[in-house]
Amino acid sequence: MMRRALAIVALSALVAGCRTTRPAGEQTPLTALTSTTADDAERQLVARRAQMTTARSLLRMRITSSKLSLTVRAQLEVGNGRMLLTAYTPFGRPGCEFLPPATK
What we know:
Blueprint: H1 2-17, H2 38-51, E1 54-64, E2 69-79, E3 82-88, E4 94-98
Antiparallel strand pairs: 1-2, 2-3, 3-4
């Protein structure tokens, strides 16, 4: 009986540790453009860029080499003149971060 209870607790902890959560902070999705011409779309994009401070996107990345193929969850954050790419471990913890040299 004790073994079974311990196995259930361990399995529950494993499942809870692997769940995907939303990043902290205010989440406002981007809306679709309402333009009918290319010039109007460009004006809307320029106006949005002026108002936007930071945009985040959750994505899946496939990393391949000659012998290995790996798929990881990642977050791309762009704004305020910088870009940050964070790759996550299977347990939802940040595994590594990539910052382009111009944004350090």
